Amino acid sequence: MVILLLSVTIGVFWHKNSALHVEKEAATERARSEAEADIAKERKLRLITEKQLDKEQKRRQKSEHDLRKVRAIIEKIRRFEPLADQKGGSYEEPKYYDVTNVEIDDVLNVREFPGYLNKKVAEIPPTEKCLKFLGNYRLFKSQVWAKIQYNDVPGWVNSAYLTESTHCNGEKDIE
Q1: Cβ 145 vs Cβ 138: under 8 Å
Q2: 171: Cα within 13 Å, side-chain hemisphere
Q3: Are 83 and 96 in contact (CB under 8 A)?
Q4: pLDDT tens digits, one per residue of 11-41
Q5: Is the whole-model pTM more than 0.85?
Q6: Is 100:129 a contact under the CB 8 Å cutoff?
Q7: What are the tens digits of pLDDT across the range 72-111?
Q8: Are 155 and 148 in contact (CB under 8 A)?
Q9: Distance, CA of 116 to CA of 56 (rounded, Å)
Q10: Strand partners, 143
């Protein structure tokens, strides 16, 4: 009988110990799955954050690029600001420009309207000086086109090929 009682007691303790062991394993497994789920969520959030940062950085780079382009265009336009505020129906002294950046064996084309595909109305040699600026300029595809007069022919040229003249007084220099 003692043996039977001892066997039952050992069986009960062993059963409780097994149940505790199973319960501990289940708790450990739950904790492990929760930790893995938290890690997965953290990775997902990190990826989302990195993507948002990349998008923001690309947006910032594009904005900076656009700002540089706008500043460059503004700088080009500043060379051809309107002559002066109109006072009493007349303008102050007009501006004159010299041809620059044109190869010696090439010419600067004068166009009927701004843009390279418009009708050519004259050709200016690369050494020409004192082209009269007629007070108009237009922005065409990030380029500033200025209206000038060459040999009594008005027309449009790309301002990248003009430099403000410092030696003209309203008439061309006679050499």
Answers
A1: yes
A2: 3
A3: no
A4: 777 776 776 777 878 888 888 899 899 999 9
A5: no
A6: no
A7: 877 777 766 654 443 433 445 678 888 888 888 888 888 8
A8: yes
A9: 37
A10: 140
Query: 137 in helix, strand or coil?
Result: strand
Task: Identify the DSSP state of 172.
Answer: -
Domain boundaries, the chain: 1-78, 96-164
Burial class (CB in 10 A: 0-12, 13-18, 19+), 67: exposed
Q: At the topology level of CATH, where does 96-164 sit?
A: SH3 type barrels. (2.30.30)
- Identify which has the larger pLDDT, 142 or 154: 154
Residue 170, pLDDT score? 54
Q: How many CB atoms lie within 10 A of CB 94?
A: 14
Q: How high is the pLDDT of residue 168?
A: 77
Classify residue 16 by its DSSP letter. Answer: H
3-state secondary structure of 37: helix
Burial of 95 (0-12, 13-18, 19+ CB in 10 A): buried
- Per the CB < 8 A criterion, the answer to whether 137 and 147 are in contact is yes
